[in-house]
């Protein structure tokens, strides 16, 4: 099946603020493991007072009819393109079937009588595998419900899609290059050591592997990444953060923008960069930008890219309305 959706953002990730808000059973292993950003691990013959330790969610053996359930609050509400029910290292104890439902609510609470929408019907799972399921519903969701039949263990739940924030919860100026705001990487020259979407993640980079890093360039030219911003924006501030990149920081960088007409203009002309340093620049480009291109010279790593500005509120509102209107109909 088509697994292209796995390149998209994991909306459920703890790195974005996702969390498990309910699990009916987590006797052997806590459901919180489902949303950890790190790949699952396994240490054989590692036992605690309940048995072999698993890096995942594992319920007890069910002796009555039924199923087990975990509800996840998405760290970035949005449109879901596909899910990965990862049963890595669960061999004799994985669930034979699973389903996934979605929910869109205002606020933070899941009402007891919530009307869930089926996204993935009850489907067979393989053990010690990534089980991929495409999702065709293009409405915006805030929560998902994973049901396993009848019981067992799941290492990770990845909910891949595009973030669509509620404009009412956004300030007048914010980071329009943030993945949580709906920004996406649309092109990149090289991502040998680190994918460019990592420099758009929330918070400070934890280490050198938590950013965009290219291979060593051996020919003329330079590396680049292009980003579609959350909305057309009057950019006022740029942050180029090379934290943790010491012997491999770019020597210089430049940022250009386009309003979609095909013409590019300078947002930040080429500037020298220092290793392991946040570089902050007030800017006044000639027009709003809907897409930007970051050029680094000649290669290297960037921990974070922040682009602060005043976005087109009408654009944000229309995008939100388009993906929520249907889901709010009775």
Automatic annotation (TrEMBL):
UniProt entry keywords in alphabetical sequence: Hydrolase, Purine metabolism
Pathway entry: Nitrogen metabolism; (S)-allantoin degradation; (S)-ureidoglycolate from allantoate (aminidohydrolase route): step 1/1
GO BP, sorted A to Z: allantoin catabolic process; purine nucleobase metabolic process
Pfam families: Allantoicase
Highest taxon of the lineage: Bacteria
GO MF assignments: allantoicase activity
Protein name stated in the entry: Probable allantoicase
Protein family according to the UniProt entry: Belongs to the allantoicase family.
Its EC number(s): 3.5.3.4
UniProt domain Allantoicase: residue ranges: 17-163, 182-311
Reaction catalysed by this enzyme: allantoate + H2O = (S)-ureidoglycolate + urea
The keyword Hydrolase is assigned to this record: yes
């Amino acid at each position: 099946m088509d697994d292209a959706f796995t390149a998209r953002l994991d909306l459920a990730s703890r790195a974005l603020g996702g969390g498990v808000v309910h699990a009916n059973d987590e006797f052997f292993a806590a459901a919180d493991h489902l949303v950890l950003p790190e790949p699952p691990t396994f240490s054989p013959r590692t036992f605690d007072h309940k048995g072999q330790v698993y890096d995942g969610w594992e319920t007890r053996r069910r002796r009555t009819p039924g199923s087990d359930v975990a509800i996840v609050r998405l760290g970035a509400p949005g449109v879901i393109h596909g899910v990965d029910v990862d049963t890595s290292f669960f061999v004799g104890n994985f669930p034979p079937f699973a389903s996934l439902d979605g929910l869109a609510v205002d606020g933070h609470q899941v009402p007891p009588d919530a009307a869930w929408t089926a996204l993935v019907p009850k489907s067979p799972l393989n053990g010690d595998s990534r089980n991929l399921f495409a999702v065709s519903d293009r409405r915006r969701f805030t929560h998902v419900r994973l049901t396993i039949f009848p019981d067992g263990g799941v290492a990770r739940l990845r909910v891949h899609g595009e973030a669509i924030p509620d404009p009412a919860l956004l300030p007048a100026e914010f980071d329009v290059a943030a993945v949580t705001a709906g920004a996406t990487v649309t092109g990149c020259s090289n991502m040998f050591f680190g994918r460019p979407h990592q420099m758009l993640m929330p918070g400070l980079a934890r280490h050198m592997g938590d950013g965009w890093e290219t291979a060593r360039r051996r020919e003329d030219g330079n590396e680049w990444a292009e980003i579609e911003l959350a909305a057309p924006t009057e950019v006022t501030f740029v942050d180029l953060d090379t934290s943790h990149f010491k012997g491999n920081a770019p020597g210089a960088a430049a940022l250009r923008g386009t309003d979609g007409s095909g013409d590019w203009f300078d947002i930040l002309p080429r500037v020298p960069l220092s290793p392991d340093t946040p570089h902050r620049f007030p800017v006044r480009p000639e027009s709003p930008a809907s897409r930007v291109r970051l050029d680094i010279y000649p290669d290297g790593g960037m921990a974070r890219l922040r682009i602060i500005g005043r976005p087109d509120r009408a654009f944000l509102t229309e995008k939100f309305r388009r993906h929520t209107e249907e889901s709010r109909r009775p």
